[in-house]
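Entry for the shared binder. Reason: the reviewer on the internal report wants the predicted structure included alongside the sequence.
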Amino acid sequence: MAVHSYKDLPSQGPEGLVVAAIPERLAPEDCLIMRDDGQPDQSPSGLKLEIDLRLKKNAVVGTSSERRRALLRSLRPDLQIVPIRGNVPTRLAKLHEGQYDAIVLAAAGLIRLGHQQKASALNLGRFVNLRLDPTIFVPAPAQGALALQCREGDRVIDAVAPLHDVSASGPVRAERELLRLVDGGCSLPFGAWCRRVDGGDLELMSVLESDGVLVRKSGRAENPDELAAVLWAKLSHTLPETPTDGTSLEA
């Protein structure tokens, strides 16, 4: 058995392997992490206003995700968005050293490492942690979820069945199915996030940057596969012709 961050698995899995269980999903959001340099005391309403108050003009923000770059540009075109590499402690150290004014990290990654609850581990008290609203700053498909993968027909499937979280699997399935439909070999910034709403329906939100334009679509349905198909129908006309270089969507 292998345990993966589900968002990092390709949209089409290898033949003979299956995802046997999806445990309870952690926070799907991204976080904007900033040095605590005497941030304003206002309590702004709205993500753009919050970022406007927290980040100076032309601030340097570290991320290597094309999706995050596209979303940041849509909120603050003045930001200087530059690549950042390394694990979470390395990235936080670079932020603390002043190489960046802010960096973007997955909330689930911080939680799993125990840093968000135990700030002393990396002295996160030095930083301001802004959770980014997933309805606006749409996460990568299946962000925050784990995938327990094994061989088809393996006895491990029964062993991990108690770990499967039904409430998480529906939304994650919708996001992953939309990724599978959209991922036709192009390289585009893409995000998808699904949640359960009143009445038990699923609501799926997506964002895709095509030709420099940020396209947002959403829909509601009971069945995750049908919901993904509805969103794909809305998104498909925005995609350029499929290239032949074998590249993939950028989350």
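Summary line for the report: The two ends are 25 Å apart (CA to CA).
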